[in-house]
Amino acid sequence: MWLNKLYHNHVFATLAYLLVVVLGLLAYPQLPRERAPEQQSRVVDIAVSLPGVSADDAEKLALDPIERMIRTKIKDLEFVHGMTMKGTANVSVTFKENIKPAVYERRVQELRREIQALVASDLPKGIPPVDIQEQNSTDPDVFEILVYGPGNDDNFRRQARQVQRDLQQLPGTATTTTLGLEDSELHIVFQPERLGELGIAASALTTTIQDYFKESTLGAVDIDGDEWQVRVSASEEVATNLAALPVSAGKGSVKLGEIADITRASRAIGVGGIRFRGQHAVSVSVTKLPGANTLALVEQIKAYINARNQNSAKTGVQLFLKSDQSDEIRKALDLMEQHAWSGMLLVLAVTWLMLGTRLAILTTLAVPFSLAGVFIALQVTEQSLNLSVLLGVVIVLGMLVDDAVVVIEAIGQYLSRGLAPLSATVAALREVWLPVATSSFTTMASFLPLTLMGGTLGVLMGVVPQVVCMGLLVSLVQALWILPAQAAVVVTPEPMAGKAVNTSVASKVTQPDWRRRFRHTLQKRYTRGLIRLLRAPKRTLFSVLALLGLTLAAWWFDWVGFAPEPEGASLGFTVTVEMPKSTPLARTLDKLDEIEAMLMPVFKPGEMRASSIQSGETDVNGTLRNQPRFGNLYFSLNPDSGRDAKALLPLVRERLDQQLQGVANYWLQDEADWGAPAEKDLAFSISGIDNRELDKAIVQIKAILKAIPGVHNIGVENEGGDPELKLHLNGDAIQRAGLSASTVTSALQLLTGGEVVGHFIEAGETVNIRVQAGKSQAHDIKALLQHPVIRPDGGSVQIGQLVTAELAEGTTGGHHHQFERSNTVMADLEEGGKDVLAVTRLVEDQWRQIADRHPNVKLKTAGKAEELRKNLSLLWQKFILGIGLIFLIVGAQFRSFVMPFLVLLKVPMAFAGLILGLLISREPISPNTLYGAVALAGIAVNSAILMFSAGHDRLADGMGVVHATVYAAKRRMLPILITSFTTLVGLLPLAMSNDPATVEWRPVATAIVWGVGFSTVLTLFIVPLLYRLAMGFAYRKTKTEL
């Protein structure tokens, strides 16, 4: 009775439909756009700046104390990674994913407190404040803006800092960082020889400045009832006042300005230099807030750049957006939207072919209703519209009409029996609501475990199952409520020839004869073919087993290879050069200018967007180097240029091999491969305590990799360093000279990097005062040891007599993993060669044969191979969970332990279709392919549930097993074909797309298309056979027991 009332009120159902669609249309344009979803990470980065300190000393002074504190006092750690370079020490602390947010916040506060306590106790005194940053996102969008101008002066630095402050205020900006922005300084440069002639110790300059250059408030004085504040000021006319300071010299004194040059200058912080269009440049990177609209932020940045550039004549600088992802994101979003629309039109075409215009429209109305519900849910949960969301839309597109097709076909069957529209609707829903709901829930059950995926694949694809499940849930509501209510009014049979109803399922317009003949012929030929197979069960089952055997062979013998996650088109590439050791920064920059001019003929007109040069802090083959002999030359391409980076790299390499001279080495990397070792094809982390043992193990791993065909671009994370002069203070000699150790180290400091003796504030910025010796013209580093140190009695002694010296090669930096020293050997694989897992297994097998030679060294696989293994393991776990949920749902419907097994037999059939499809298309198995395979499990079993449900109904009506099997198959043939074809055609545009923008998502669509295509054929012919055999055995057993 209540169903009659529910479906009789079609006005309420239609208004509800319109309300959801309107709200969805309003929500869609308001969703923030971004390329990929962001997931909050639980990582804290600790950066310690140690100016002038070597990488080895940074490890001892900062990295080791911080790691000792973390190991003993901080809990809930996933892993800890430390890194040192010249002048810096960095520690990345990753907390466990499963800890509660409140616990995570408490751990971060504990970490901050312990770091502050460490600064006061163990870390070197006088270092800049320790920078502690929480990473808000696993892979945030970052936009790089170049500020460039003709001179590196105070105005240029002031303008760059103003740009950074302005960009920080833009809505959607999380953080801004600069690269190449130098600190303003006031340099006091003296000549050691001149001081020696006057008998002035270099330390006297620093002492004099520190004594005089002080600002302090002394107190207040009451004069005739007025209170006067008294203070000592030193920050006005700083250069003039410093030049007038008296410095003691023998029996008299001399002005500081007479023995030293006082000039305004700058000092680089963490980077050598950046050039753009032949001018000095500073890079300002803008990191997007999680959930912010990427396209909106880029438009704001572009508007700001245009406004600033209009005033470039006044400011003296110009701005350029170096990395602009907006065009790529907009193109990819548009492309996925086109695939969604194409899929929807194809779904409409399939339903029109099978059901007719009116019923096709009525059925396809499920698509806008379901998608509107998805967009409303995304807006309510504050998620963005990204490529993963659109992939979920494309996947679910064909499935949204599955429930509606089954319902509308069942209504048509009851109408053909002479029932009134409302009665037919109610009767149809009573028959099909349970199998329809079960099939939807089983599909959701296969997708839901994928929301628990971790790693990069989980971040990229985690939102896809959410979209699919939301769409299926909304479509189920439409199929069980709105569609029947509308069908009770729209699908009205036409009286004819004195009969109550027409035998055709029509809606006031009789369906064309060709469509009825087509469906009748299809059912007739299918039934005949099915009966032939049922009469030869052994031959049919043997064919299926042979097909499954072929699939297993293809898997076991690696006929289908494994590959990492596919990478999209890259619109940028980098030329990295290594100059000979001891090469100064200026010469490295000049060489990069030369290479830039050398490569210009490679590009077609309008193809290159921009190029920039960076030296000092550079990424070298996946490793960060902070040395002036390394440099990067970055090229970016226009999105519509026609060629991507991979197409240009062979031409660039050929030109460099022919013309490049005067460099120690060079590397070419496209934008997709630029980054940490985790992004290399092959990476093997070697950890231990003794550096010498690590070095020996590294030599062995490199030899193994060199012997494998197809492996190239082999490199080591930390390899080679600049020459260094190691000095050890001679205590006896220092004491005999009447000096102190601090005097000698102060003299060495002034002769090398200089010493900061004070600072003042100018225009809101801190300006350091640095005392240092003038640049030496010597050609031998040992000339430094010949400089004199003034003794208290006025005499002098050479530094070489106070120290012992040795020449050595320093390290570029060091890495710690889980509190142990580590190094990583990296390499790339040629395309079309061995798959990454096969090469990784080969290296691991050979390492096990020699591991006993290195008992204190541990080898761990990293890079894309490790990520692939991790994803495969996670996918298998989620697959087992999905299968368990499907078993639970199907068992609850049929109240049987046997039927879930029969239903789940569809899964290996679908997988067999997937593997055979990959064999035919010659595509490898990637994590994205397996992701589609896990989702395929839920899609494949739907048709079996519908068929078994119809068979059970006929067995309950008294039919025999064979007749029930045949009539159930004939009854469900049409809805199974329609639902399978709608799923296929919904994904077909994406699966057949060759656009580089969809390369990451195409394997998912390909997996589902091949799997559904093969499994549909097997469903129509093999599943009925399995049902007949299983039910026949059950009935024979029952009769025997009776």
CATH superfamily name of the largest domain? Multidrug efflux transporter AcrB transmembrane domain
Taking all Cα atoms into account, the compactness measure Rg is 37 Å
Instruction: Enumerate the spans where pLDDT stays under 50 for 5 or more consecutive residues.
Output: 494-510, 1038-1042
CATH architecture of the largest domain, by name, is: Up-down Bundle
Number of helices: 33
Please tell me about this protein's structure.
With 1042 residues, the chain is of the alpha+beta class. The protein has 4 domains: 2-35 and 329-557 and 896-1041, Multidrug efflux transporter AcrB transmembrane domain (Multidrug efflux transporter AcrB transmembrane fold); 41-135, Alpha-Beta Plaits, CATH 3.30.70; 185-215 and 231-267 and 723-809, Multidrug efflux transporter AcrB TolC docking domain, DN and DC subdomains (2-Layer Sandwich), CATH 3.30.2090.10; 568-675, Multidrug efflux transporter AcrB pore domain (Alpha-Beta Plaits). The chain is built from 33 helices and 30 strands. The chain is elongated and about 125 Å long. The two termini are 40 Å apart.
